[in-house]
Design brief:
It contains no helices and eight strands. With 73 residues, it is mainly β.
């Protein structure tokens, strides 16, 4: 479980031989998934595939809480 405070982010990074899934538990934010920007909130799931990049930012005023699962190949 990861908590991003308001104004915080995890910068863009690439996954090599793995996928990552974010599942948003609470709060709101913005995900840049391989160049596609999406607003996210509770109940949203985002999958970043092998060789793709992503970042996540909390642009809200409450903590953004999410689960992150990495699937290795």
């Amino acid at each position: 479980q990861i908590t991003l405070e308001p104004g915080c982010s995890i910068g863009s990074h690439v996954h090599d031989q793995e996928e990552e899934i974010y599942y948003i538990l609470s709060g709101t934010g913005t995900v840049n998934d391989n160049g596609v920007v999406k607003n996210v909130g509770p109940g949203d799931a985002i999958k970043t595939g092998d060789g793709e990049s992503h970042s996540i930012s909390n642009n809200g005023d409450v903590p953004l809480v999410f689960l992150a699962a990495i699937i290795l190949f």
